Amino acid sequence: MKKEKSATALKYDGKAAPKIIAKGHGALAEEILAVAKEHGVLIHEDEELTKLLAKMELGDSIPKELYLIIAELIAFSYVLQGKFPDDWHNIHQRIDLKT
């Protein structure tokens, strides 16, 4: 039996903690994912994180217990998009900035 899909969308303005801006199950989850893909939003699939976020209400900021994991996901998404802070130094030369 196929498990019903769940989705939770976060918005981060770079200042305050990310907030829940959309969430749903089944057809609504599929629609959230489709809109995200349509707008080039990176999607991270994590069943346990989705369960935790699903317990929250729309407009809620993520709790401090999730700051580290969400910060890592945001930072990784920036790297995937080639975005780096102005004062960032590629000291390990592991990221090719020319591509």
UniProtKB/TrEMBL annotation:
Against InterPro entries, the record matches this protein to: T3SS_substrate_exporter, T3SS_substrate_exporter_C
Q: Which key words tag this protein in UniProt?
A: Bacterial flagellum protein export, Protein transport, Transport
**Which Pfam families does the record associate with it?**
Bac_export_2 (PF01312)
Keyword Secreted among UniProt keywords: no
Q: Domain of life of the organism in this record?
A: Bacteria
Q: Any keyword Transport?
A: yes
Q: Which family does it belong to?
A: Belongs to the type III secretion exporter family.
* Protein function: Required for formation of the rod structure in the basal body of the flagellar apparatus. Together with FliI and FliH, may constitute the export apparatus of flagellin.
- This one is known as Flagellar biosynthetic protein FlhB
